[in-house]
Amino acid sequence: MLYPQAMRPLLLLLPVLLLGQTSAQTVTPRGAVQVTGHAAGTFGGAGNIGGPSGGVAWGPNGTAYTLDGARVLYRWNVSTGRSLFRQVLWPPATLPGARDPAFGPRLFLNATSAGTLGAAGLLVRVEGVQNAQPYRTAFTLTPDGRRVLGDPCPSSERVPRGCVQVGGSKVQDRTQAGATAPQTPPLELTYKDPATGKTLTTRPEPPPDGARLILGELGSGASRIPSSTVTLPRGEVLRVVPSPDGSRTAVLRLVGESGGAGTAYVDVVQRKGGKRVFWALPGTTLAEDAAPDLRWVGNSRLLTATAEQDPVTGGAIGGGQVVALRDALTGRARWKLSATAGLVGAVPSPDGRLWLTVRGGSVPEVRRVSDGQFVRALGRAVVAWVPLAGGASVGGASSSGRAAVALSVGGGAGALSLLDRAGREVPLAGGAARWRFAVPSVPDALAATSDGGRFALAVPGALYLLDSTGRLRQALPLPGLRVSTLSFALGGVLSARATDAALGGERTLVWKLDGAGQLKPLTLPPLPDGSRYSLPISALLLREDVRRSAQNTAQTGPLQSRLSVLNLGGGLRWQEAWGAEAAALASADGQTVLRARGIAIPGQAEVGALKLWLADARTGQARPPLTLAPRALQVYRGLAVADFAPNRRHVLLTEGQGDGCGGALYGVRLADLQIRQEVPLPAAFGTGLTRFFGCGHPRPVPETAFAPDGKHILIRDGNALNWWAGAFGGGR
After folding, report:
1. What pTM did the predictor assign?
2. 292 Cβ contact list (under 8 Å, min separation 6)
3. pLDDT value at position 196?
4. Residues 676-680: contacts with CB within 8 Å, 24+ apart?
5. What count of other Cβ atoms lies within 10 Å of the Cβ of residue 619?
6. Cα separation of 149 and 97, whole Å?
7. Which of 403, 720, 535, 552 is closest to 8 using CA atoms?
8. Three-state secondary-structure class, residue 4
9. Is 94 exposed, middle or buried (0-12, 13-18, 19+ CB in 10 A)?
């Protein structure tokens, strides 16, 4: 959700209303549950700013490690998919910005067997910035939890290096600048910073000729293979990867725009004799922010994972990488998975039977090397959620506070599950047993009726309607559509916001439950240009009209908005005058409209307050407003509406900050629009959700919502669900 100051310039200058607080409302914690797995999107994806984060690695004795961009580290039993431990991983405190929550170093798992290249433990690579200069290093996480700084195979962006342990010795291969005339600067320049005494490295652009591959010596005595040099064809070297036995080294080379896109070639060089073969990867490969992978499976096959460029948008095709198992000497693919599978990375197991990847930036997967097929997921990711009313009895114990969660469960599949605040899967009233509903693709959106009698679950191209026992009641095809927002209102009206691939824009869809509990489509009146319907839709339509100010029609000029309220047949009930841009949100029963308008604060640039007021949906009569300001007057900081309570008076707000390359959440606030005061919240609720995200640091952004019975607030923080009890039901 965008904050008012980041939407568009606002001309209206109003004084900020400084209000006292009331302690009449209390909010107390009532349980928490953690769904095992990484939060959705926290690994990043191909083509994202900063590229994928964290990654996967094999551990000893049939285990695997997974690390996301929020620095959450899991260790898994690969044969069962069970989690063995979970922790938040921090780099050694001696590294620059080690504890910086916003722009600290990025951590990446070394995608080999744990302990192969260093002391026993997990090798974690680090990328950070010191004195405006990027640096790379690594540390080993030992079994006793110590973090030992040191990189056994140091690399830079311009001088890739490959290492492999063969017997008791380590083989190291690297690149360097090739011969050229006129002379070009070296690929790395080092100097000592007088302020810190640290040696720093700069990375000029590579010379125009091909790099030289320096092959380290292997073995000893009569079987010793001495160091040698092989000149590579022109191109930017992205990866240098020796085979497990050291007999061959594979080089991933990009020919095209430096750091951008081009044709990727794989050079396979024999260590003894220096014979080289090469072959091209099909398509236009993205290198920048797409992390191409090149991994040996044994000594004769390679797993490749590369993102392909969309020639129209310039971004990654399909949101993932093309993964293939190839013959190392010919490049012939034994099998190939397209980028539309949504996979990033391909890390084979030490025995060559399995490989690890990450789907959709969310769920690590185990797959077979022989055919590339899915074996199992390592955890699940919550992709959509909705709090439910009331409680259920499970094993004789009361379970107050429940939620429906839509999950990504690996293999491209999804599921809908019902959880109580102890994390148990529970039935609804009238349900005979606990249940979970599986779907063939990852859900996009979820909604439930206020009594939990019906659930709507949207997946790409389809909508499912379920009853409280988990039985499928209806499947509606939505060809070419992807639903982003789904909402039930009182009266059984289901409304959806969907993206139409053919039209390249948004559509609003509406259905109504009939007497048999089936969804029947409703036809909406056509929208004027620059207008959209506000969700949820009930017995009335809220149409938001937007235009440029009559005084300034330039594309950069201020916007004006107008709210028009119609019945479902299109008849106009009332309409407000054009004014400064404001958002509208209808209550679930359709009786009240919540209005929100960002306003500038005098003397402050790019800092917005938020003006909130209620209006009668039938007449448009407005009540006196409440204006709240951010707790700190910082650039790009403001407030946004998170949810509107069933009692049509309480509003949850989030306070955040950010621009197009990252931001922050500073917590949640609660306002009572009937008494026009802010309600104090416990520190763990109101200010305990500070989060920094974006710009290569993909982290979950907490979201909040009222339960439909008005007895609970639910916070969803990635895969964590936290219930808080309050009194937000009843009438006005």
Report:
1. 0.88
2. 238, 239, 252, 264, 285, 286, 304, 305, 306, 307, 321
3. 67
4. 676/19, 676/624, 676/625, 676/626, 677/19, 677/20, 677/21, 677/22, 677/626, 678/19, 678/21, 678/626, 678/628, 679/21, 679/22, 679/24, 679/25, 679/27, 679/650, 680/21, 680/22, 680/23, 680/25
5. 10
6. 15
7. 552
8. helix
9. exposed
Establish how many alpha carbons lie within 13 A of residue 166's alpha carbon, considering only the half-sphere containing its beta carbon: 20
Type of residue at 130: Q
> Lowest-confidence range among 26-30, 345-349, 430-434, 624-628?
430-434
Exposure string for 457-477, b = 16+ CB within 10 A, e = fewer: bbbeebbbbbbbebeebbeee
Residues with Cβ within 8 Å of residue 656, at least 6 apart in sequence: 3, 637, 638, 639, 640, 663, 664, 665, 666
How far apart CA 621 and CA 616 sit, in angstroms, is 5
Whether residue 718 contacts residue 43, with contact meaning beta carbons closer than 8 Å, is answered with no
Sequential DSSP letters for 314-360 = SSBSTTS-EEEEEETTT--EEEEE-GGG-EEEEEE-TTSSEEEEEET
* Residue appearing with tokens 């959440």: 665
Minimal CA–CA distance to 715: which of 2, 724, 25, 391? 724
Cα–Cα distances (Å) from 541 to 521, 524, 578, 708, in that order, read 15, 9, 18, 21
**Gap between the Cα atoms of 267 and 280, Å rounded:** 9
Rg (CA), the chain: 28
What phi, psi does 67 have (nearest 5°)? -135, 125
Residues listed for the chain: 732
Please give the Cα distance from 85 to 701 (Å, whole number): 23
Each residue of 546-574: pLDDT tens digit?
987 765 555 556 789 999 999 988 899 99
pLDDT, position 119: 47
Using CA atoms, how far apart are residues 609 and 601, in angstroms rounded to an integer? 6
How many angstroms separate the CA atoms of 282 and 265, rounded? 9
Helix, strand or coil, per DSSP, at residue 270:
strand
DSSP for residue 61 = T
**Model confidence over 641-672: pLDDT tens digits?**
999 999 999 999 999 998 767 889 999 999 99
CB atoms within 10 A of CB 2: 14
Distance CA 495, CA 458 (A): 12
Distance of CA 635 to the CA centre of its chain: 25
CB-based contacts of 287, cutoff 8 Å, min separation 6 = 236, 238, 254, 259, 260, 261, 262, 264
Structure-token pair, residue 531 = 């207008």
Helix/strand/coil percent split, the chain, to 5 = 0, 50, 50
Does the pLDDT value for residue 406 go beyond 80? yes
DSSP state of 223: G
CA–CA separation, 380 and 721 (whole Å): 14
pLDDT digits (tens, 9 = 90+) for 314-364: 778 888 999 999 999 999 999 999 999 999 999 999 999 999 999 999 999
Residue range(s) occupied by CATH 2.130.10.10 in the chain: 380-523
- Asked whether 24 and 636 are in contact (CB, 8 A), the reply is no
Q: Kindly report whether the peptide bond that precedes residue 194 is cis, defined as omega within 30 degrees of 0.
A: no
Above 60 in pLDDT, residue 398?
A: no
Fold classification of 380-523 (topology level): Methylamine Dehydrogenase; Chain H (2.130.10)
Among left, alpha and beta (phi > 0; psi -120 to 50; other), residue 340 is: alpha
Distances (CA, A) of 259 to 124, 159, 475, 652: 24, 13, 46, 44
The whole-angstrom distance between residue 696's C-alpha and the CA centroid of its chain comes to 11
What are the residues whose beta carbons fall under 8 Å from the beta carbon of 684, sequence distance 6 or more? 29
Do 285 and 209 contact (CB within 8 A), yes or no?
A: no
Q: Beta 579-580 vs 559-567: how paired, if at all? A: antiparallel
**314 forms bridges with which residues in the sheet?**
none
Decide if 157 contacts 142 (C-beta within 8 A).
Answer: no
**Residue type for position 268:** V
